[in-house]
Write a structure and sequence with these properties.
- The protein is mainly beta.
- The chain has one domain: Jelly Rolls (Sandwich).
- Helix content is 6%, strand content 41%.
- The protein is built from three helices and 15 strands.
- A six-stranded antiparallel β-sheet has the order 1-2-10-7-12-5, with no helix packed on it.
- It is globular, with a radius of gyration of 16 Å.
- The termini are far apart.
């Protein structure tokens, strides 16, 4: 029996992953990752890195982060505590959904995870205080390959459900698409 089911989302390659926990009077057991079950969704490499984040206050926005090729990575993002709006932005050159975003509510209660393919920026907004996320990455972090989008960029027009707060200086300092890239972003005409 599969413990992880996948549902394709509107941006090609992006999937909602639903855990099928085993529940009894003692509590539950849930599979967080299974290479065999996620291979059909494109996860073909071992996990290279696992990260855990804690966000203290609702409204806080983190992201939109990505790694440039050849260090682009696939991510499986799960919420272990609280609730977040998890957002992925398509940055794949030539994609019909280039610069489109999709968001999913992830919570400890709903057991959803977001499987994000390479070529997407990722970020989230905490919808509750004390939100914790666990990230599985297909590639290790490479400082020289890190990049980001400004999460408040009007060209992206991400519909954050709460007033955005708590941006790090790094995230708030990311340029607007129109400021830095002009008519090109990652080599693609806008």
């Amino acid at each position: 029996m599969s413990r992880l089911t996948r549902a394709p989302l509107p941006l090609a390659g992006l999937f909602r992953v639903q855990r099928q926990p085993l529940v009894d009077e003692r509590g539950f057991f849930a599979r967080l990752f299974c290479a065999d079950e996620l291979a059909a969704a494109g996860w073909t490499q071992p996990i290279a890195q696992i990260n855990h984040s804690y966000t203290a206050l609702a409204g806080t926005v983190r992201g939109m982060h990505y790694q440039r090729p050849p260090h682009a990575e696939m991510k499986l993002v799960s919420c272990l505590r609280g609730e977040v709006l998890d957002v992925a932005v398509d940055l794949r050159q030539g994609s019909p959904t280039f610069l489109h975003w999709h968001a999913e509510r992830l919570s400890a209660d709903n057991g959803h995870a977001l499987l994000i393919p390479p070529g997407f920026a990722h970020g989230f907004q905490a919808l509750s205080d004390h939100a914790e996320l666990l990230y599985c990455h297909s590639a290790a972090y490479v400082p020289g390959a890190e990049a980001g989008l400004n999460p408040l960029d009007p060209r992206l027009a991400i519909a954050w459900p709460l007033p955005p707060a708590g941006l790090s200086p790094r995230d708030a300092g990311q340029p607007w698409l129109s400021d830095e890239q002009g008519e090109e972003f990652e080599g693609v005409r806008l």
